């Protein structure tokens, strides 16, 4: 097959500025190429990255993109301008187009839309009814799949498919549990919807025999909550062992933190924004015990008491419940060992080759439907 991946306008590929979706398709593109498919990856032009290059068999084409604006309206306008430029350079010879921009299923040529595999990585906000002519609407979790269907007449429900996101890397070594440290880790955007105020409150209620590290971007241009929000968190964290670190976009360096941490906490409050949770998946692959909020998207791969712990983030005592989870993992070696050994199995279930194979099967299923 000839597969074209259209990445968004705001983050580069390779994922030099992070971005879970960019990391995912960069890895999947290489795996699809490895299995014999022709892959062209279109993404934002950035710094010293060339306009054209081949990485592990994938042809990369880069066009002018933008820094993420604060305004959602301006973001949509920039996304439109970017997608128009993609449309102008889009080839006529393709089998599948993986779309990661808002406008692709709306303004690409008719043949391209008919080949469009729309990658829905966020909870839809009413736009799915405009994508009825696309070949497929792919959800990354069952909760997203149901939300897509809720926006469509039932006759279009067969266009919805669910394939989970993969680990965006192939681990280069086994987990050495003897090198685990008494560290609780959070990686992700430093933004109010991620529940970091709650995390700090829970940490203060815990026995605090583990240190807490918070790693991620806080700049609004990178999806963060801004410097004022970061400063407010630092004020909350005064007097306890909490370390704030700048974002780490190098996969191997970030994996070093996962490899050392024992507990990974992801207390997201984004009921309609969180759709999968790549960061908990990454942490689990390095033997971190995940503690997550009770969002539907985490239920696809985190089972409470089996390979992680889930706390009720909607409760008035949410910080207390999270603290109880932290204390349970920190003090019960039998429990923590059991959860960690189960968590690490995502190396197999969500490996890049395994998930790429699921995508290939979906593409092959869809190809005969293009001309119906």
Account of the protein in words:
This protein is of the alpha/beta class and 372 residues long. The chain folds into 2 domains: 2-167 and 352-369, Glycogen Phosphorylase B (Rossmann fold, 3-Layer(aba) Sandwich), CATH 3.40.50.2000; 177-349, 3-Layer(aba) Sandwich (Rossmann fold), CATH 3.40.50. Helices cover 35% and strands 18% of the residues. The chain contains 13 helices and 14 strands. The chain has helices at 20-34, 72-89, 104-107, 110-113, 142-150, 196-205, 227-236, 251-260, 278-284, 318-331, 333-343, 346-349, 352-366, and strands at 2-6, 38-45, 52-55, 58-64, 96-99, 116-120, 136-139, 160-162, 183-187, 211-215, 242-245, 263-266, 289-293, 309-311. Helix 1 (20-34) crosses helix 13 and helix 6 packs across helix 10 (318-331). The longest helix has 18 residues, at 72-89. The radius of gyration is 21 Å and the shape is globular. It starts with a strand and ends in a 6-residue tail after the last helix.
């Amino acid at each position: 097959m000839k597969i074209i991946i259209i990445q968004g306008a705001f983050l580069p590929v390779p994922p030099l500025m992070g971005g879970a979706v960019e990391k995912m398709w960069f890895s999947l593109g290489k795996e699809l190429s490895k299995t014999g498919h022709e892959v062209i990856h279109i993404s934002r032009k950035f710094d010293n990255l060339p306009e054209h290059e081949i990485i592990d068999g994938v042809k990369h084409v880069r066009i002018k993109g933008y820094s993420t604006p604060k305004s959602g309206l301006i973001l949509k306008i920039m996304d439109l301008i970017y997608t128009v430029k993609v449309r102008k350079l889009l080839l006529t010879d393709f089998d599948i187009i993986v779309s990661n921009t808002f406008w692709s299923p709306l303004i690409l040529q008719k043949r391209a839309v008919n080949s469009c595999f729309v990658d829905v990585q966020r909870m839809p906000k009413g736009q799915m009814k405009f994508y009825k002519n696309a070949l497929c609407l792919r959800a990354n979790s069952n909760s997203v799949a149901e939300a897509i269907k809720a926006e469509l007449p039932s006759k279009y429900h067969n266009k919805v498919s669910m394939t989970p996101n993969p680990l965006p890397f192939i681990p280069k070594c086994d987990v050495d549990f003897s090198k685990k440290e008494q560290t609780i880790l959070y990686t992700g955007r430093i933004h109010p919807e991620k529940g970091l105020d709650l995390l700090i409150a829970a940490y203060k209620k815990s026995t605090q025999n583990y240190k807490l590290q918070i790693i991620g971007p806080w700049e609004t241009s990178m999806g963060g909550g801004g410097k004022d929000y970061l400063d407010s968190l630092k004020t909350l964290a005064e007097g306890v062992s909490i370390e704030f670190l700048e974002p780490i976009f190098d996969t191997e360096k970030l994996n070093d933190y996962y490899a050392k941490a024992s507990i990974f906490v992801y207390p997201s409050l984004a009921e309609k924004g969180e759709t999968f949770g790549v960061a908990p998946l990454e942490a689990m692959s390095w033997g971190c015990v995940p503690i997550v909020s009770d969002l539907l998207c985490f239920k696809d791969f985190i089972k409470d008491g089996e390979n992680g712990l889930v706390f009720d983030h909607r409760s008035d005592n949410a910080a207390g419940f999270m603290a109880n989870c932290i204390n349970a993992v920190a003090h019960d070696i039998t429990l923590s060992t059991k959860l960690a050994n189960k968590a690490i199995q995502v190396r197999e279930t969500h490996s890049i080759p395994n998930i790429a194979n699921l995508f290939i099967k979906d593409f092959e299923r869809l190809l005969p439907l293009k001309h119906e």
